[in-house]
Amino acid sequence: MIDKNQIRDKIKNMPKIELHLHMEGAFTIEFLFDLIQKYGGDSSIKTIHDLEQKFVFRDFTHFIETWFWKNQFFKSADDFEQSTYFTLKNLHQQNVIYAEVFYSPWDFVQFGLPLEAITEATLAGIQRAKNDFGIRCHLIADLCRDYGAETAIDRFKQILPYRDNGVIGIGLGGSEQKFPPDPFEKVYKFAKEKGFHRVAHAGEAVGPESIWSAIQKLSVERIGHGVRAIEDPNLVEKLKNDQVPLEICVSSNLKTAVFPSIEAHPIKQFFENGLFVTINSDDPTMFGITITDEYLLLYEKLKFNLESIKQLTLNAGKASFLSDNEKEIYRNQIDSYWE
User: Fold this and answer.
1) Catalytic annotation on 204?
2) Tens of pLDDT along 60-85?
3) According to the CATH classification, is domain 4-338 in 3.30.2130.10?
4) Could you say which of 24, 81, 176, 204 is catalytic?
């Protein structure tokens, strides 16, 4: 007889790779609570429970509003270094061995924090976590649609000096329903010329047309979410044939009401039909979940077996922006665990 607790332990302890994680949505709840107490600014947050309740979302728009609300409590470079360090420590405790993480420095420039200070503090937190725990992390700069396409190249130029120092790509998050991908074509072409990797959120708050645009106009290497491809059989076929990696975040899609239930989510259909899917946690603290929870959810609710869960982990390594040699090292690490 299969011991389900043993299987759960196997999933908890397995080496994991995260490809779709927002640094500013993965702070530890205790750290944000401490910042709120330190700086003040919201008298309704008296306990950690109050803060957790703040992260119960009505829909995607409410999520974006809350995202910007919590940003006001990050006021110094040290806040970013500390938050990054504790975030990666938390991932290490879940046996995450490598992560490619979005960071959104432009969200904080309005508070008087220079992009350079935020970037260097975040990179310092990454280095400290690597030294202490062995976890590796690279950054993807989220250009954020909400700041407009007109200034996107100027924003991109600010991160150019960090290309060989830990910032490996650009992403496009924010209000997908208000800002389609097409106007960002120029900055994506420029980023490609400069040797940056390119991903974009698409097919989350908007349907298949957003994914088509990200592929055709932005020439992305991976799609963030991509789940609403399910609405277009021709797009599903293209994603399958071209093996475009999808950064799928199941709990995130449920918490922001992209799908009404786990049963309605297309992850299993995508996986069984041979699409290139990876599993990620998106904004784990804001959603009250972890990357470990995501894999347990697949096992317990959608009946993914261990072989499938191992394959999803291998997919993440294959879809990463690591060198072939580094991918091989992580693949061997994952294989040896499962043997």
Assistant:
1) yes
2) 889 889 988 999 999 999 999 999 99
3) no
4) 204
